[in-house]
Amino acid sequence: MFGKSVKVAVAAVAAAGALAGCGGTPKAGTAALVGDDRITVTELSQDVRDWREQFRADPVANEMRANPGNPAQQLGADSESDVRGALTLLINFRVAREVAEAAGVEITGGRVDRAVESLNRQGGAESITLASGLPRDRARELARLVATQSAVMERFGADFTDRMNPATQRAGQQWNELFRRTADGMEIEVNPRYGTYDPGKFEIDPAEQRLSRPDSGI
Questions:
Q1: Residue 106 pLDDT more than 90?
Q2: Residues 6-68+77-201, CATH architecture
Q3: Ramachandran sector of residue 164 (left: φ over 0; alpha: ψ -120 to 50; beta: rest)
Q4: What is the DSSP pairing of strand 196-198 with strand 203-205?
Q5: pLDDT tens, 121-159?
Q6: Which residue spans within the chain are E strands per DSSP?
Q7: What is the rounded CA–CA span in Å between residue 10 and residue 78?
Q8: CA 74 from chain center: how many Å?
Q9: CA 93/CA 217 separation, integer angstroms
Q10: CB of 142 closer than 8 Å to CB of 150
Q11: End-to-end CA distance of the chain
């Protein structure tokens, strides 16, 4: 259902990151606010530390994450990028729950189980989670995100047996639009030390060179 390659699965997750940020500076110790839900700097830092340790020991995750043009990719070469990627996914998990509600779909435990099974067939749910930038214990949350995207796109008319079907492509566009609108309504605020959202590129842009200033929120 989710495609025949790990690259497709990871790309689908990345496409879910169409977030629109709001202004404001979260209070000290906060990495991001997603509505009333707070992601702390401690939580984010722990996830990144756990991810680095686990990623080093997982050759499958390394192979998935490696740039084909540079097989000798070095872990931690861009630690700020690692943190931004992890924070983006932590936000996505929260937004996706609201997206499912807005689309009127229920993401049952059975749906998540099937998403885990699909990811396992594509290289392993835990390895894919590591390749995506989070530790293994976030694998089920990642699977829930994948399951949510699948369910919502199906509601919009997607046919996953034919990804080139115009209806499937339209459903993907509708998913991105709904994700963006939902994120807008949730008043997402990111600590400026981590950067800002660029919904056009589906990623967190790096922070400006202001990290040493006292208005970083930390």
A1: yes
A2: Orthogonal Bundle (1.10)
A3: alpha
A4: antiparallel
A5: 999 999 999 999 999 999 999 999 999 999 999 999 999
A6: 30-34, 37-40, 189-190, 196-198, 203-205
A7: 20
A8: 22
A9: 23
A10: no
A11: 43
- Amino acid identity of 36? D
Tell me how many helices (H) and strands (E) the chain has: 8, 5
* Cα 31 → chain centroid: 15
**Range 52-58, long-range pairs (CB < 8 A, 24+ positions):** 52/76, 52/82, 54/130, 54/135, 54/136, 55/130, 58/126, 58/127, 58/130
Please give the structure tokens belonging to residue 203. Answer: 């990623």
Token pair for residue 215?
């208005």
Q: Is 34 helix (H, G, I), strand (E, B) or coil?
A: strand
SS3 70: strand
Token representation of residue 200: 């056009």
* Angstrom distance (rounded) from CA 211 to CA 57: 31
**E-strand stretches of 50-131:** none
Phi, psi of 213 (to 5 degrees): -80, 150
**Percent of the chain predicted with pLDDT > 70:** 74
